[in-house]
Amino acid sequence: MANALCYLETSFRRFPDRCAVTDDSRSYSYAEFYRLSRRIGTGLARLTGPKQGVGVFLEKNADAVAAFFGIQWAGCFYSVLNTELPGPRLNQIAAQLGQAVIVTCRELLAQAEEIFPGQSLVCLEELAEIPEDDTALAAIQARAIDTDPLYVNFTSGSTGVPKGFVVSSRSVLDFIGCFTELFGITEGDVIANQAPFDFDVSVKDIYSAMKAGATLAVVPRRLFSVPTELMDFLCEKKATTLIWAVSALCLITGFHALDYRTPETIQKILFSGEVMPLRALKEFRKHLPDVTYVNLYGPTEITCNCTYHILEENRDYAAGIPIGIPFPNEDVFLLDGENRLITGQETEGEICVRGTALALGYYRCPEQNAAHFTQNPLNPNYPERVYRTGDLGRYNDRGELVFSGRKDFQIKYMGHRIELEEIEREMNAIAGVDRACCVFDEKRGRLKGFYTGAIDQGELHTIMKQTLPGFMVPGILRQVEAMPLNKNGKIDRKALAAMAGGR
Fold it and tell me: Does pTM top 0.90 for this prediction?
């Protein structure tokens, strides 16, 4: 097979009775999961054509994972419509997808009808009852190739409209093959999934489990509000592998959840999304000293990650944890402002990536493609795409890559990539706001919004929650008499950050 269904097919043949996917209320063996996904695929194939986008409006659970594979059986690609996002935001994403079929469930059907008027909705329960059509599915897969899209994830966009990036099956197969081998993920692992399914960290969870024949344990969202129950879940499921966002790991240490109960079966903790605070790392190492810890780096446009650093037990990371060295079959390099290759130590440049793992590009967004997926300036001889991340990096005295910051106003917050300009645009559109500016306090890990105008801070916060995801709403909103300006007459963001003081 030319797509990730080869993982499922192989693991189903090898381990039919082993648990494939579990959550807090259901579990599927590989045999059950395989049959369920094929029934879903058969039903979807009757509703849409190959290479079409299918929205998934389901809670984060085992059934949603089955939907992802069912969509692949139908020859389509999926896009997760996170049920926690505000309705207007979800409607924007669906509009970007076009007239796509949206998979939901009976419990969410009324909500889906309200959010997605005019869209074709189908309940998972109905699809699950349709008998497999082996002939139809085989015919679809016979036409599939590995450059077909697998999924489209949507992130914050500087224009105020979420931007989607398209990842092919080839990119996922190439990355996951390296990922599972490099970190020793096998059929004996239980991978505890933390990340929302519209966040590409979850791609590593889902497809690593399927590739290895391991168990994917989907952690319910609500448990991240109850750290003791979260620890109970990890212990009861005998989790061995955590591929988590830094913010989720910090939640555990912040609530001292490891003092309550330590999941002793954990062997590997891989983290990404933000800089890991050394205090949190120390806390984990105190309770789980024999675990392998790995720092992962990479924008979503290069299929999850492009570099890694396996932490050394006795090394002092006071100067920061490096993002490390490239994954196999990925070339990661630095370019200066004149597009010249940087090889020396401590010289800052833009992190660029080439290789199979690059996404196909942005969905219906040619301007973004032209800006970020460009011809390799080091290669004038033949067409070769590189992705310009917008991240800045340098090499330390060990030859390891170190993250330095951003070229633009894009940030990583709570594991999500956010365009500050989009937040500002939403703020400026609200009645009672004359002018707005958003800054990120990296030291304290806080998103702060400043504005001039008559609207009350509380009212502004309430309105913003109705249009933006929770992680994009500044935790601190501050009304100011006037915006500080620099010598060029632009808003002085550093001065604004200083105005917030230690808050």
Answer: no
